[in-house]
Amino acid sequence: MLTFAVRRLVLAVPTLLFISFVIFMLLQLAPGDPMAQVPLTVPPEVKQKMREALGVGEPPLVQYWKWLVQVFWLEPKVFIDWLTNSSTLLGWLPDTQLYQGELRVISWQTRSPVMDIVIQRIPQTLWVVGMAYVVGILIALPIGIYSAYRQYSVFDQSGTFITMIGFSIPPFFTGPLLIVIFSVQLGWFPSIYDTTHVVNDWASFKYQLQQMILPVMVLALQTTAQISRYMRASMLDNLNQDYVRTARAKGLSEAVVVTVHVLRNSMIPVITVIALNVPSIFGGAIITENVFKVNGIGQLLITALFANDLPMVMTLTFIFAVLIVLFNLIADILYGLLDPRIRYD
Amino acid sequence: MTEPVQATPTPIEALADKGPLEPPRSQWLDVWDQFRKHKGAMFGGGFLLFITLAVLLGPYLWQVDAQKLDIRNKDLRPIWNLLWDSGAKVAWNRPFGTDQLGRDQLAQIIQGGRTSMAVGWAAMVLSLIIGTTVGVLAGFVRKADGLLMRLTDLFLSLPILPLLLVAVTLFRQPLREAFGPEGGMFVLIVGIIAITSWMPTARIVRGDILALKEREFILAARSIGTTPFRIVQRHLLPNVLSPIMVSATLGLATAIITESALSFLGVGFPSDFPTWGKMLADAVQRMQQFPERVYLPGIAISLTVLSVNYLGDGLRDALDPRIRGR
């Protein structure tokens, strides 16, 4: 198991390098010029110097190498400095001061380090999208279990119908639909997610809950649809097994048979699916974030794309790719850990 | 002297053959019978047929130019608003109303449906071709297997939606110059959706081919000197048809949704060219005053995708020989 994990981890490095190379070269083809917004009165040679200051003058391979150095060498240094300097967890350690003011990955839009902006945006995304994922799973598991236990019952049929709807209605339709119903006609919830809102007392906490409900509903519908389908199928596979009949024959109660014997075995594939979908928490909510004006990672990517901010786009897509590869690995390892029949060696 | 035995003796009554009562059943007849039992699938198939015919024949029945501006008759409400609001601004020759530039909504829905369905079908077919080719090659040619599957894994670990957005913004200009504004966008969107969605098909097909090629009938075919190409064409492809058909329905659904999502985010077709996603995106700004402009394209997208999904569900059941006949 350990050798398998190590081997996969080592294999992930060339994969990620290749992906980053492909994305980088793709972005090199982009027609935009970071100096397009600079006034025409600025002389061309000054513009050229500004371009070089942003790192555009060099050949693509050199640029790629510098980006690699910045992301894999300088940014970790900055992160370690931050950990030992201002974080509460490791703040007691002596200040390391590894970062000596070298050029980091700079966004063309804001002229500030890309990683700083990403760190600013992550909490909003994690709160809304992560919460939606948790809520979706919590709803999906009981639905999946019960509709498998009562296969072809009214509950199962309607559950199937609702999951089909969840699959089929895209978030850019459910979003406006819910806004029209709940914030325009009923006036219960705000339609725009206010990220500057500070929770410091009961009333502001209530407001925070209210503004989170709509985006969480939209995202949770999709998660629920997917996970409950998997849960149902996996329960159905296990419910007809011999060991279930044995458990019943021993005289165990139905509750014990279903929740202890069947559920624990059925959770194995479901947990890997849950792990596989975690990267989409960080990157997949682009549309929902756009509809509800949540300024998270997805919205950051869209604005960066429209503003032709290539370093930002490059770094963000690379972060998404890292997450996908990482959680693929985690899912495989989890599968091996949870199911003793699976042996990778 | 015994009588000669008749050439065809009359059989004993009890042993007489009642004759084949039914003609022999083909596999596809069985599939169809099982498919018919799935109500949702029948409904989905029917609706898909209806919407396809509607967008194909619609422009001939409803001969209004979807892009014609008619500012005098802008912001007309749909005709059914009369039911609860007798003072609503409606016109009988504009049954679905008009938008803020006076373009006819019904014609736009039909025109947008044409685009969405065309993109969906084309992207689905293209991604099936890529996926099946890669899957068959990886399963059948042992040397190519490792390389092709690594490639598939690589594509699976790409962040799809961000890459779609990147690619559309990057290649919009050159393709527009090559194929014109609409044609270039069509080629671009179809190509990009296909390139980023062939991986599941390839994996399924490879798995099936790997199992099939060890079977006896392939050995028999090989022993009588069938060329590898003919083996793939005559023996392997027909046997992997059912998983391909199921992933085709899934591919159609995702292609329609992806195209609408791109249009919604504003990176799809040019602004005067209606698609369902673009109509929805344009209407969101004023959805408080004119909610029907959000509902109509949204319902069109959702119902189409829902019917395709149900169709796929029914096909999966009908094509699975373990379920069929139960």
Automatic annotation (TrEMBL), chain A:
<feature type="transmembrane region" description="Helical">
    <location>
        <begin position="161"/>
        <end position="189"/>
    </location>
</feature>
<keyword id="KW-1003">Cell membrane</keyword>
<keyword id="KW-0813">Transport</keyword>
<dbReference type="Pfam" id="PF00528">
    <property type="entry name" value="BPD_transp_1"/>
</dbReference>
<dbReference type="Pfam" id="PF19300">
    <property type="entry name" value="BPD_transp_1_N"/>
</dbReference>
<dbReference type="InterPro" id="IPR045621">
    <property type="entry name" value="BPD_transp_1_N"/>
</dbReference>
<feature type="transmembrane region" description="Helical">
    <location>
        <begin position="209"/>
        <end position="227"/>
    </location>
</feature>
<dbReference type="GO" id="GO:0005886">
    <property type="term" value="C:plasma membrane"/>
</dbReference>
<keyword id="KW-0472">Membrane</keyword>
<keyword id="KW-0812">Transmembrane</keyword>
<protein>
    <submittedName>
        <fullName>ABC transporter substrate-binding protein</fullName>
    </submittedName>
</protein>
<feature type="transmembrane region" description="Helical">
    <location>
        <begin position="312"/>
        <end position="338"/>
    </location>
</feature>
<feature type="transmembrane region" description="Helical">
    <location>
        <begin position="126"/>
        <end position="149"/>
    </location>
</feature>
<dbReference type="InterPro" id="IPR035906">
    <property type="entry name" value="MetI-like_sf"/>
</dbReference>
<dbReference type="InterPro" id="IPR000515">
    <property type="entry name" value="MetI-like"/>
</dbReference>
<dbReference type="GO" id="GO:0055085">
    <property type="term" value="P:transmembrane transport"/>
</dbReference>
<keyword id="KW-1133">Transmembrane helix</keyword>
<feature type="domain" description="ABC transmembrane type-1">
    <location>
        <begin position="122"/>
        <end position="331"/>
    </location>
</feature>
<comment type="similarity">
    <text>Belongs to the binding-protein-dependent transport system permease family.</text>
</comment>
<feature type="transmembrane region" description="Helical">
    <location>
        <begin position="270"/>
        <end position="292"/>
    </location>
</feature>
Automatic annotation (TrEMBL), chain B:
<feature type="transmembrane region" description="Helical">
    <location>
        <begin position="41"/>
        <end position="62"/>
    </location>
</feature>
<dbReference type="GO" id="GO:0055085">
    <property type="term" value="P:transmembrane transport"/>
</dbReference>
<feature type="transmembrane region" description="Helical">
    <location>
        <begin position="183"/>
        <end position="205"/>
    </location>
</feature>
<keyword id="KW-0812">Transmembrane</keyword>
<dbReference type="InterPro" id="IPR025966">
    <property type="entry name" value="OppC_N"/>
</dbReference>
<dbReference type="InterPro" id="IPR035906">
    <property type="entry name" value="MetI-like_sf"/>
</dbReference>
<feature type="transmembrane region" description="Helical">
    <location>
        <begin position="121"/>
        <end position="141"/>
    </location>
</feature>
<feature type="region of interest" description="Disordered">
    <location>
        <begin position="1"/>
        <end position="21"/>
    </location>
</feature>
<comment type="similarity">
    <text>Belongs to the binding-protein-dependent transport system permease family.</text>
</comment>
<dbReference type="InterPro" id="IPR000515">
    <property type="entry name" value="MetI-like"/>
</dbReference>
<keyword id="KW-1003">Cell membrane</keyword>
<protein>
    <submittedName>
        <fullName>Peptide ABC transporter</fullName>
    </submittedName>
</protein>
<dbReference type="GO" id="GO:0005886">
    <property type="term" value="C:plasma membrane"/>
</dbReference>
<keyword id="KW-0813">Transport</keyword>
<feature type="transmembrane region" description="Helical">
    <location>
        <begin position="294"/>
        <end position="312"/>
    </location>
</feature>
<keyword id="KW-0472">Membrane</keyword>
<dbReference type="Pfam" id="PF00528">
    <property type="entry name" value="BPD_transp_1"/>
</dbReference>
<feature type="domain" description="ABC transmembrane type-1">
    <location>
        <begin position="113"/>
        <end position="312"/>
    </location>
</feature>
<dbReference type="InterPro" id="IPR050366">
    <property type="entry name" value="BP-dependent_transpt_permease"/>
</dbReference>
<feature type="transmembrane region" description="Helical">
    <location>
        <begin position="153"/>
        <end position="171"/>
    </location>
</feature>
<feature type="transmembrane region" description="Helical">
    <location>
        <begin position="240"/>
        <end position="269"/>
    </location>
</feature>
<dbReference type="Pfam" id="PF12911">
    <property type="entry name" value="OppC_N"/>
</dbReference>
